[in-house]
Amino acid sequence: MAAASLTQGDDADLAHIIQLQLEEVEQAIRAAAGKGKQPAGSQTDQQLSLDLFLRELQDTQNFAADCRMARSMQRAVLDDGDALAQSQSEERAAEDQKASVSLGNGEIEPSRAASSPESLAEDDEFLQKLACIYITGIDHGKNDDGKYADDETETETETDHQPESSAWAIRRRQKRRRRQQCEACTEPKHFAELAAAPCGHKYCRQCLTHLFHDAMIDESLFPPRCCKQPIPLEKNRLFLDAVVVQQFRNKALEFSTPRRTYCYNPGCATFIPPANHKNDVAACDGCGCHTCITCKKASHRGDCPDDEQLGQTLQLARERGWQRCQNCWGMVELNTGCNHMT
Predict the structure, then answer these.
(1) Contact at 8 Å (CB) between 222 and 250?
(2) Which of 16-25, 189-198, 270-279, 317-326 has the lowest mean pLDDT?
(3) Which of 7, 27, 98, 209 would you label with 135, given CA atoms 20 to 30 Å apart?
């Protein structure tokens, strides 16, 4: 779905249509789940097609929400931009004056709580990326000179001639090249198609996806890094497919879990998150099998023979004459009364 087709007037209608379709598909999935006698963990063609349609609807819903957010942020910047620029200019002028007085008195320059020029520039660039992706679109055309029309731009605002710190002035007056180079493939890309790592290097969508895929396959590469600095998911989710984002979040949970449990079924072997553990048994959502979290084999009745701590406790119970409750299997020590339990 093109960004241009999601106009502001269509937002409410589109959200309503998607919500109705989601409800219909979810109802159809529930109805299909109660039919048929296929093996546990397998799906019919109808169920597979419904699941695929559900994911497409969810992706469309997320995309529409991102478009609304981008337009809202752009409107806020346009409506309040002049006031914010004036306020920031006055604040910088006041801080520069205080710093000059402090230095003139031989004092150490006070720290500044205001946003740095770098962070403000990053926020501005992020807003421009949102606008290009979700509102105006990205122009890859060339002009009559054979150069890209948006290759290089430099903007001036009404605050250009007002007092400002030298650091801000240097940062603001640097030209921003609209086409920049991907650090991995070295291909020139529109700046809105490049994700920024904390170190400042840029990656295109394809190369960033490869970085995240490699990190999910090789745990030694997790999390994905550039210049030894982790690349955060949330700040770059804009450049990753929704499926990749969900897979990465699942892997983050898996790699951060101690003593992980995987489905004992060789045809599945899926990681089972702690939320699916109950009474030392892990239930797999993928195939429906149940795995013992102690021996990592199929779940079984009674005590797990591989539970060393339980074995030591039972040995101590035998030595001291303890009995086990036949209901909860907890240890019971007789202090007073007769030798039976009710």
Answers:
(1) no
(2) 317-326
(3) 209
Domain boundaries, the chain: 1-34+42-78+121-136, 172-256, 265-301
Residue 313: band (very low, low, confident or very high) from pLDDT cuts 50, 70, 90: low
Side-chain-side CA neighbours of 59 within 13 Å: the count stands at 15
**pTM for the structure as a whole:** 0.53
Cα dist from 182 to 127, 186, 194, 224, 298, whole Å: 20, 5, 7, 16, 48
| Residue 227 backbone zone (phi > 0: left; psi -120 to 50: alpha; other: beta) | left
Q: Is the per-residue pLDDT at 328 higher than 70?
A: no
Region of 223 (left: φ > 0; alpha: ψ -120 to 50; beta: rest) is beta
> Would you state the pLDDT for residue 36?
60
Give the side-chain half-sphere CA count within 13 A for 4: 4
Q: Is the pLDDT of residue 123 over 70?
A: no
Binning pLDDT at 50, 70 and 90, where does residue 101 land? low
Greatest Cα pair distance, the chain, in angstroms, is: 102
End-to-end CA distance of the chain: 68
3-state DSSP call for residue 222?
coil
CATH topology of domain 172-256: Herpes Virus-1 (3.30.40)
Structural contact between residues 179 and 188, judged by C-beta atoms closer than 8 angstroms: yes
Mean pLDDT, residues 329-333: 56
Contact 26, 54 (CB under 8 A): yes
Residue 192: partners with Cβ closer than 8 Å, 6 or more residues away? 128, 129, 132, 133, 138
- Token pair recorded at residue 218: 């090789």
